[in-house]
Write a structure and sequence with these properties.
Blueprint: H1 2-12, H2 24-48, H3 58-75, H4 81-102, H5 108-131, H6 133-137, H7 140-159, H8 166-187, H9 194-221
Helix pairs in contact: 2-4, 2-9, 3-4, 4-9, 5-8, 5-9, 7-8, 8-9
């Protein structure tokens, strides 16, 4: 299973015949612009649709969220930059809905602090990955198995033990911090195409959002 997943990830970043490579500057601008687009959509939804989803059926929202994320994950495996960007929106929009529901419970001060801390972590990990790319590129398998282990442990704690342990939030922050470094290092070794830039932005977006949500949880416990 792990081997197939690793192979699929590598296939996403192949450079098929006819795919035009772009300059390093353009490549990084597309990654940054795609990330900023996702965060801007989330911020817009939070401002405009605040309270709009509170009375909706929670199971319906959850099912819709899962379906959209799966569709987005499938579309971002395309070798077409346009289709990958469409898939990105299938991830960004449902996450925006969830953030619209979630953030009012934390208050603006904690949200601002979480944004700042997440930004600092992201910047530091990208700098570290730029300085030591070979170290981060070797972390993929370890990060994957750690993610699976954390997921299983958290499910057990919530649904079997009935408790939500604070230490899991810290572990998840560390885990996705490692993923930021890994995904940024990967982004810089694959062919510089528009599609690869968008795919890299999708991975980084998911890493950053996961850190942000867990930082919020940590701050809320204090």
């Amino acid at each position: 299973m792990a081997g197939n997943l690793t192979q699929n990830k590598q296939m996403r970043f192949e450079n098929p015949a006819g795919s035009r490579q772009i300059s390093e500057r353009a490549y990084n601008l597309i990654i940054g612009g795609t990330l900023l687009y996702g965060f801007a959509v989330n911020a817009f939804m939070i401002q405009v649709f605040e309270g709009a989803f509170d009375n909706m059926n929670q199971w319906g929202l959850l099912i819709g969220y899962i379906v959209c994320i799966i569709i987005g994950a499938v579309l971002t495996r395309s070798q077409s930059g346009f289709i990958s960007f469409v898939g990105y929106n299938f991830i960004v929009v449902p996450l925006g809905v969830m953030l619209t529901i979630l953030l009012p419970y934390y208050g603006s001060e904690r949200v601002f602090d979480a944004v700042v801390i997440t930004g600092i972590i992201t910047l530091l990990m990208m700098i570290a990955a730029g300085a030591f790319p070979h170290i981060f590129l070797k972390m993929g398998r370890a990060l994957f198995f750690t993610l699976i282990a954390v997921f299983v442990v958290e499910l057990f704690c919530v649904f079997v033990n009935g408790r939500d342990f604070a230490v899991i939030d810290y572990v998840v922050v560390l885990l996705f911090s490692g993923y930021i470094g890994y995904d940024w290092a990967r982004a810089n070794v694959y062919p510089r195409t528009v599609n690869n830039a968008i795919d890299s932005a999708v991975d980084l977006y998911m890493d950053i959002i996961n850190i942000f949500i867990r930082i919020l949880s940590i701050l809320n416990r204090q």
